[in-house]
Amino acid sequence: SITKPRSEVLYKEALQHIVGGVNSPSRSFKAVGGGAPVFMKRGKGAYFWDEDGNRYIDYLAAYGPIILGHAHPKVTAAICHAAENGTLFGTPTELEIEFAQLIKAAIPSLDKVRFVNSGTEAVMTTIRVARAYTGRNKIIKFAGCYHGHSDLVLVAAGSGPSTLGIPDSAGVPSSIASEVITVPYNSVEALEAALDRWGNEIAAVMVEPIVGNFGMVMPKPGFLEGLCAAARRNGSLVIYDEVITAFRFHYGAAQTFDGLEAPSLAAIEPDLTALGKIIGGGLPIGAYGGRKDIMEQVAPLGPAYQAGTMAGNPASISAGIACLQALQEPGLYDRLNKLAAGLEAGLAAAAREHGIALTINRIRGSLSTHFCSHPVSDYEEAQDTDGEQFARFFRLMLDQGICLAPSKYEAWFMTSAHTDDDIAATIAAAERAFAVM
Ligand code: PMP
User: Fold this and answer.
1) Quick one: which atom of ligand 1 is closest to the CA of 63?
2) 187 three-class SS
């Protein structure tokens, strides 16, 4: 079993200077019983090593972006090349055009795009643009879907479903929260009821087309079609938050995904899309885009303002181009799918053998593990799972050098660097963990 004395020391030190010792709350171990998080020192491929030199198989993948594994040679070379040639000019560059073309080719609903620095910024701006375009103020979102930390979407982003917004964060005025209506995911009926009541005030319906924030959850057949039809009837825009989902399951987004797992996802197109995570190849990025007439609301063409000193910087754009090019390798996504399928089968068998109730939601190379015996298709079902059991499992895995996200709601992400041996080692570790549990 692993010991981490350096992480303990560094955590105490970090607490003196950095609020909570972490630069994003999801990195703390608060949701799994507290204590020092692991301080990582370096990563290569499917592994990272902590400050004590312990090696971990990484399924966190930095909450999603690291789909090629750590320090992928092509991405690293692109970043170094960008660094050597100047990281920021405050002018347009040719690279931005190349990257925009690459993304547009993969996601045809994007007539025009704009690069920003995070998923939060991307989502925040799609809402502004939708408001500018429709002249309406309210949005509808789905309970448990996380859309970054801007005021408007910090409503029911982590607490139970409510009809009229109650903010999840201090500092979000109730006047802002009252502009958000939250309904359960996978319920067209609830959406239609909200549209009946507030219809002429709704600028947009915002959705994770495939959920990544309360486990991996597929839209039920007909949900997205019903959502889009209801929104359009009402003159509201449809915004897909594809920050997690774009380039996750195949070379494209959820909106262009029409494999066996998702027979009808590609039948509809959103008006606006927010992107982030994978498209930056591990460097900070976000992007938003959509229909030409809507995107032309944005400054300097239109009245909706959005800007950024760091936006479209050559380092992030170069990393993004290299990442997307690497993701075009034939068979890459099928490999992620096979790895995750093997992991799913092994975890399920181990849980069965040890009498542990475990629901696994797997979508291609991503999966989530829910300690419960019911299916998980909305936020209520995801909440109604055994968090203490997850916390025990998380720690038992970490002690064996397997790193998951420290939250029962987060996914496990395969990277192209994981091997069959990594999966076998992970299943063996899970067997030992379940035996103790
Ligand atoms: N939207 C979704 C669906 C996300 O999962 C996240 C981040 N987990 C965000 C938006 C926010 O992105 P960022 O953390 O880059 O601001």
Assistant:
1) 8
2) coil
For the domain bounded by 73-327, which CATH number is listed?
3.40.640.10
State how beta strands 237-241 and 202-207 pair.
Answer: parallel
Q: How confident is the model at residue 61 (pLDDT cuts 50, 70, 90)?
A: very high
Q: In the chain, where are the structural domains located?
A: 5-71+331-436, 73-327
DSSP element (H, E) containing 113: strand 112-116
- Which amino acid is located at 55 in the chain? R
pTM summary value = 0.97
Question: Which pLDDT value is given to residue 258?
Answer: 85
Q: What is the pLDDT of residue 70?
A: 98
Q: Which amino acid is at 234?
A: N
- Cα–Cα distance between 223 and 225 in angstroms, integer? 5
Pocket test for ligand 1, best of 277, 279, 283, 316 (most atoms within 8 A of CB): 277
Rounded Cα distance between 46 and 24, Å, is 22
Residue 330: asked if its preceding bond is cis (omega within 30°), the reply is no
- Is 241 known to be catalytic? yes
The DSSP 8-state label assigned to residue 105 in this structure reads H
Residues framing ligand 1 (Cβ under 6 A): 63, 118-120, 123, 146-148, 208, 212-213, 241, 243-244, 276, 286
Place of tokens 């959005």: 306
Determine the Cα–Cα distance for residues 36 and 151; give it in Å rounded to an integer: 29
Q: Check if 277 is active-site.
A: yes
Q: How far is the CA of 286 from the centre of ligand 1 (A)?
A: 9
Q: Token pair of 152, please?
A: 């408007």
CA of 242 to the centre of ligand 1 (A): 9
d(CA 20, CA 101): 41
Residues 6+ apart with CB under 8 A from 106: 247, 251, 252, 253, 256, 324
The maximal CA–CA distance of the chain, rounded, in angstroms, is 62
Q: Whose CA is closest to 321, among 363, 366, 287, 274?
A: 287
Name the active-site residue from 4, 138, 141, 277.
277
5-71+331-436 — its CATH code? 3.90.1150.10
